[in-house]
Every structure is written in C-alpha cells, then in structure tokens.
Prior knowledge:
The complex is a heterodimer. Chain A is mainly beta. Chain A has strands spanning 5-7, 10-13, 19-24, 31-37, 43-50, 53-56, 65-68, 75-79, 88-95, 105-106, 110-114. Helix content of chain A is 0%, strand content 49%. In chain A, the strands form two sheets. In chain A, strands 2, 4, 5, 6, 9, 10 and 11 form a seven-stranded mixed sheet that branches. Chain A has a four-stranded antiparallel sheet with strand order 1-3-8-7, with no helix packed on it. In chain A, β7 and β8 form a beta hairpin. Chain A starts with a strand and ends with a strand. By secondary structure, chain B is an all-beta fold. Chain B has strands at residues 3-5, 10-14, 19-21, 24-26, 32-39, 46-52, 60-61, 64-69, 74-79, 88-96, 103-105, 109-114. In chain B, the strands form three sheets. In chain B, strands 2, 5, 6, 10, 11 and 12 form a six-stranded mixed sheet that branches. The A-B interface holds A 33, 35, 40-45, 48, 55-56, 58-59, 89, 91, 93, 98, 100-101, 103-109, 111 and B 4, 31, 33, 35, 37, 42-47, 50, 52, 54, 91, 93, 95, 97, 99-108.
Amino acid sequence: NAGVMQNPRHLVRRRGQEARLRCSPMKGHSHVYWYRQLPEEGLKFMVYLQKENIIDESGMPKERFSAEFPKEGPSILRIQQVVRGDSAAYFCASSLYQAAGQPQHFGDGTRLSIL
Amino acid sequence: AQKITQTQPGMFVQEKEAVTLDCTYDTSDPSYGLFWYKQPSSGEMIFLIYQGSYDQQNATEGRYSLNFQKARKSANLVISASQLGDSAMYFCAMRELQGAQKLVFGQGTRLTINP
Lengths: 115, 115
C-alpha cells in the first residue's frame, strides 16, 4: 500500500536549467497539493490540483513555475530557468476527498539544490 | 487570512517526561481543522493528530493528545512519556473548510529529547 511517491529525492541543477519534480499520489487520491519549504521554516502552499485541473495556484510564483496533474501519470511541478532562490524542499501531498478530518498525506519531498 | 503561530523555536525535555508544544491560530472561518505533523531529521512529514473546530472532545492518538481551547484559539500538542525518537521538528497546521482547503503551517518547534 504505497504512500505518496515523489522523485527524485534529491535534484541538483545549475542556474538557468529546468527542474521537473514528480509526484504520484496515494492510490485513489485525486487531490494533489504542492508545498515549498525553505530551511528552518514551515511549509508554504503553492498549488492545488485535481485530475487535469488547477484549482488554486495562489501560492505559485507568477513566472517560471507551472504544475500539472494529467489524466494519466504523476503530477509534475516544473521550474524553468532556475535561480539560487529556488533551492528548497518541495513536498507533494494528496488526499482522498475534501472533508473536515481528511489529513493530507505527504511524500518524502524533493530537495532541490541550485548551483 | 489564516495564521498559525508557534512561539517555541526549540524545546529540550528529559526522556520520559511529558512535553507541551504551543500553537495558536487565527481565522474568521467558523469551520476549520487543526493538524500536527512531525518532521524528523530524515525530512519526511508524518501526520500525528487532527482536531476539528466543532469537535467537543480533545483529540487523542496514542501518546499524542491535543489540548484544544477554542475561545483562546489554541491547539497545543501534548506528548506523554517522551522517547528519544520523538526528537524532531513539529509543525502545527490549519485547514479552512472552504475553497482549496490548503494547509497553512506554523514555523515549527524543534523538540530535542535528552537521555
């Protein structure tokens, strides 16, 4: 019974390159959230997706960042032309449905380092 | 706007003692959920306990309990009989039950259990 799977676990990119982070939600979960965590800080919401739809992207930077959750396959968080400030841990979470007590189950995160 | 405040950057406790981690919140939404997550040094986010705004009783899960004082807008986590493996970062989070239902996290408390 696999949990939320994120890959890669660690990703190193040079400034100007593209970073692609993948997230496979728990089986049967159709709600996916992406969060970013800077060192010694709490997680900050980026985007909420359901299958093929972006529901809320109010936490996403307006440029260079995009997310998708296709009908088939994992959710992808894409960062174009990365800069040093993009270095962070990126977490994906999924939930079965939207209800009061439904916790969001997190993956182990992707640690992105920009050289 | 939602806000979560954790005022204790670090806590040091002797093994087997009980510890209380503070969390206060601010929201204008009458319906919300409060969560605690544990983040060990390995980096994953582990769901611990949930409290709903309309729950009459404090939530408990094994050695974890939540001291929910709605009028004071506080949701402190109590860990009984602490163990060395409890050493980790602990995050309080809130989820309003409207809109995207994203989690808003506090800054976290680093708990260290001393033998």
